[in-house]
Automatic annotation (TrEMBL):
<keyword id="KW-0067">ATP-binding</keyword>
<comment type="function">
    <text>ATP-dependent serine protease that mediates the selective degradation of mutant and abnormal proteins as well as certain short-lived regulatory proteins. Required for cellular homeostasis and for survival from DNA damage and developmental changes induced by stress. Degrades polypeptides processively to yield small peptide fragments that are 5 to 10 amino acids long. Binds to DNA in a double-stranded, site-specific manner.</text>
</comment>
<dbReference type="InterPro" id="IPR008269">
    <property type="entry name" value="Lon_proteolytic"/>
</dbReference>
<dbReference type="GO" id="GO:0004252">
    <property type="term" value="F:serine-type endopeptidase activity"/>
</dbReference>
<dbReference type="GO" id="GO:0034605">
    <property type="term" value="P:cellular response to heat"/>
</dbReference>
<dbReference type="Pfam" id="PF22667">
    <property type="entry name" value="Lon_lid"/>
</dbReference>
<keyword id="KW-0963">Cytoplasm</keyword>
<keyword id="KW-0547">Nucleotide-binding</keyword>
<dbReference type="InterPro" id="IPR027065">
    <property type="entry name" value="Lon_Prtase"/>
</dbReference>
<keyword id="KW-0645">Protease</keyword>
<keyword id="KW-0175">Coiled coil</keyword>
<keyword id="KW-0720">Serine protease</keyword>
<feature type="binding site">
    <location>
        <begin position="356"/>
        <end position="363"/>
    </location>
    <ligand>
        <name>ATP</name>
    </ligand>
</feature>
<dbReference type="InterPro" id="IPR004815">
    <property type="entry name" value="Lon_bac/euk-typ"/>
</dbReference>
<dbReference type="InterPro" id="IPR015947">
    <property type="entry name" value="PUA-like_sf"/>
</dbReference>
<dbReference type="InterPro" id="IPR020568">
    <property type="entry name" value="Ribosomal_Su5_D2-typ_SF"/>
</dbReference>
<dbReference type="InterPro" id="IPR014721">
    <property type="entry name" value="Ribsml_uS5_D2-typ_fold_subgr"/>
</dbReference>
Length: 789
């Protein structure tokens, strides 16, 4: 059809969705939109001509002028057929390019004024060269793509018209509508062929890349299918041989476990490598068992499993108070940890060290901490551990190798953030097998333990979320570098009042339950329980008290069982007389350490690993040649204190009213009773000096006074440690006056109020003040047993 003679030709417009028609193309269209149907009907009424333009967006149901491309194709409607579903199928033939000049007012359908864009004729040789290049590239494209048949190339190669060639080839390519529209809008033939050549080059590169990827995927699939086929064959062979799937079944099970385990990538690679080794290993090989054991360990460790912390302060406080009486500082520390966790959400686990005598509840406190946090609890005892491999594990080259206790504990806990109790950390030893305390440095260092290395596991394990709690009876047995990494919380021991409360609230109900007794069976009043505390126990903790209560419950159980035979069951009240009958005579004398004022005998205070204690230091002066004798199994420090006290007494002899030559005429014997028990420590200096001066001056010592402090040669009183434990011991012994070094005055705040208000504390800085408080005045010496303090 020739070009229009008019400037603007009126034609109905049919917008196409996801489709584009070139001149010379013949194809079927399905038309369903109302406006499009009416446009077709107008076309059939007039000259069967219609303009086909593509929409820029496929999803638009009612396109506007902006949604339809300006350049389209004038087409002739060859055939029209109404389908049963209401749509119309038409056969159209593209005639020529056309550009929309203007949209004409019409509400029924789109009507436009168009200008035809006739095909340019050219005999430029460059166009011929471009045609050949395009045909070559199209041939390559067909060889790579399965979407275009070789017959299409034969049909295309016969086309002589360059413009038509470009249109037909473009119509066979799988391109975006935007790219096809670009070709349609290019009127210049040479430019159109160049654009098509670029498109064909890009498409060919993409197809080549796609082909390579497909080949690679196919090879991988073939390999996987081959492995699967071989494994199935192996299973069938093993089944025939009666090996019950053998190693292959084992490996398959391990692979499925690994897929479900959710371990870190680094660990996953390690396990996969070990599974591959296991798979290739003969089922008779001994090393197979070693590898299987190693894989089981790696799979069973909690690499990513954690428990959610219960950060409720009130709930935690209630749990701690229900489980333990007293212990204010440890409880406060746990609540502080919870408060910080609430604010920062993520905090490295603290390392707490609970230090105190046996039986004060260190281990049970750690268990309560786990309960209050809602965490798993795991405990290992380090008492007697002397092998470094106990902490770090053995290397896998050794027969019977296994992980260390830390990794074993983490497996038991089953989470990354348990409360981990390291019990008796002060009882570790070292020998030729290494130093376990040094191996613990990495475990208990918050800066290092996020990559803890176990010799057996070989993969770094994260311990930074673990809340470590350690317990010890004495700090001096813990190496300094290890102690430096821990936060020390002292649990010094309990007062009588606290023991009474613990016995009433916890120990008695627990022992009654364990011995099958109810509240109605056995009644123990407070005053009888206090008698039990005072006369049958003398300890810092409550373990011995629990044993004595258990003994009472056993006696009561026997009593009720024998009574039941005669069908007489009445509540039994434990009286003071019945207590003595069941437990025997009092084991400890409650009251003053000394029952009367004495010459040369002074009550001293001592600290031991099991709490504080009182000890009496005795000095006896006899005619002789100046020999100084020390007995009572004293350590080196105590012997030096005695020598210092002796030298001080000689230097102050005239001031004290002592014969300056006493050391030449007399033998002096210093003795501390209970000679079989080793005694040592730097806190008996003033006690020895007071006893020595009392013996030499023949003055009485006040029986109600106990003292602690080190002495210098000039009589200064030096500070000591363990004042709280010593004060509790003095209180248990019935002593009400304590002399302490002036510099220890700051430690008085640690002493419980019930003890501090029941006793008098006199801080002293010089030996003169000690003597002033301890020795009775000369005029009352004849009245032995009285005190003017």
């Amino acid at each position: 059809m020739g070009p229009s003679k008019t400037k603007g030709r009126r034609l109905p417009l049919l917008p196409l969705r996801g489709l584009l028609v070139y001149p010379s193309m013949v194809l079927h269209l399905d038309v369903g939109r109302d406006k499009s149907v009416r446009a077709l009907e107008r076309s059939m009424v007039e000259d069967h001509m219609i303009l086909l333009c593509s929409q820029s967006e496929v999803n638009i149901e009612e396109p506007t002028e902006e949604d339809i491309y300006k350049v389209g194709t004038i087409a002739k409607v060859r055939q029209m057929l109404k389908l049963p579903n209401g749509t119309i199928r038409v056969l159209v033939e593209g005639v020529s390019r056309a550009e929309i000049l203007d949209y004409l007012p019409n509400d029924e359908f789109y009507e436009v004024s168009v200008k035809e864009l006739p095909e340019q004729e050219t005999d430029d040789p460059e166009v011929d060269a471009l045609m050949r290049s395009v045909l070559n590239q199209f041939e390559h494209y067909i060889s790579l793509s399965k979407k275009v048949t070789p017959e299409t190339y034969a049909a295309v190669s016969d086309i002589d018209d360059p413009g038509r060639l470009a249109d037909v080839i473009t119509s066979h390519l799988s391109l975006k509508i935007k790219d096809k529209q670009d070709i349609l809008e290019t009127v210049d033939v040479g430019e159109r062929l160049e654009k098509l050549l670029d498109i064909l080059n890009n498409e060919r590169e993409v197809l080549e890349l796609e082909r390579k990827i497909n080949q690679r995927v196919k090879k991988q699939m073939e390999k996987t299918q081959k492995e699967y086929y071989l494994r199935e064959q192996m299973k069938a062979i093993q089944k025939e041989l009666g090996e019950k799937e053998g190693r292959a079944g084992e490996v398959e099970e391990l692979r499925s476990q690994l897929a479900e385990a959710g371990v870190p990538e680094q660990v996953k690679e390690k396990i996969e490598k070990e599974i591959d080794r296991l798979e290739k290993m003969p089922s008779t090989s001994a090393e197979g068992g070693v590898i299987r054991n190693y894989i089981d360990w790696l799979l069973s460790l909690p690499w990513n499993k954690t428990t959610d912390d219960d950060l409720s302060l009130s709930k935690a406080e209630a749990i701690l108070n229900d489980d333990h009486y007293g212990l204010e500082k440890p409880k406060e520390r746990v609540l502080e940890y919870l408060a910080v966790q609430q604010l920062v959400k993520q905090l490295k686990g603290p390392i707490l060290c609970l230090v105190g005598p046996p039986g004060v509840g260190k281990t049970s406190l750690a268990r309560s901490i786990a309960k209050s946090l809602g965490r798993k609890f795991v405990r290992i005892s380090l008492g007697g551990v002397r092998d470094e491999a106990e902490i770090r594990g053995h290397r896998r080259t050794y027969v019977g190798a296994m992980p260390g206790r830390i990794i074993q504990g983490m497996k038991t806990a089953g989470s990354l953030n348990p409360v981990f109790l390291l019990d008796e950390i002060d009882k570790m030893a070292m020998d030729f097998r290494g130093d376990p305390a040094s191996a613990l440095l990495e475990v208990l260092d918050p800066e290092q333990n996020n990559t803890f290395s176990d010799h057996y596991v070989e993969v770094p394990f994260n311990l930074s979320n673990v809340m470590f709690v350690t317990t010890a009876n004495a700090l001096h047995n813990i190496p300094r570098p290890l102690l430096d990494r821990m936060e020390v919380l002292y649990i010094p021991g309990y007062t009588e009042l606290e023991k009474l409360q613990i016995g009433t609230r916890y120990l008695l109900p627990k022992q009654k339950k364990e011995h099958g007794l109810t509240e109605e069976h056995l009644v123990i009043k407070e005053e009888v329980l206090l008698q039990l505390v005072r006369e049958y126990t003398r300890e810092s903790g409550v373990r011995n008290l629990e044993q004595q209560i258990a003994a009472v419950c056993r006696k009561a159980a026997k009593h009720f069982v024998s009574q039941e035979q005669t069908e007489i069951l009445e509540p039994l009240e434990l009286t003071s007389e019945l207590l003595k009958e069941w437990l025997g005579p009092s084991k400890f004398r409650y009251g003053l350490a000394e029952s009367e004022n004495q010459i040369g005998a002074v009550t001293g205070l001592a600290w031991t690993e099991v709490g504080g204690d009182t000890l009496v230091i005795e000095v006896s002066v006899m005619p002789g040649s100046g020999k100084l004798t020390l007995t009572g199994k004293l350590g080196d420090v105590m012997k030096e204190s005695a020598q210092a006290a002796f030298s001080y007494t000689r230097s102050k002899a005239i001031e004290l009213g002592i014969d300056p030559s006493f050391h030449e005429k007399n033998d002096i014997h210093i003795h501390i009773p209970e000679g079989a028990i080793p005694k040592d420590g730097p806190s008996a200096g003033i006690t020895i000096a007071t006893a020595l001066i009392s013996a030499l001056t023949n003055r009485y010592v006040n029986k109600e006074v106990a003292m602690t402090g080190e002495i210098t040669l000039r009589g200064r009183v030096l500070p000591i440690g363990g004042l709280k434990e010593k004060s509790l011991a003095a209180h248990r012994a019935g002593i009400r006056t304590i002399l302490l070094p002036k510099e220890n005055e700051r430690d008085l705040r640690d002493i419980p109020d019930s003890v501090r208000h029941d006793m008098q504390f006199f801080p002293v800085s010089h030996m003169d003040e000690v003597l002033q408080h301890a020795l009775l005045p000369v005029q009352t010496e004849e009245k032995a047993g009285t005190s003017i303090l």
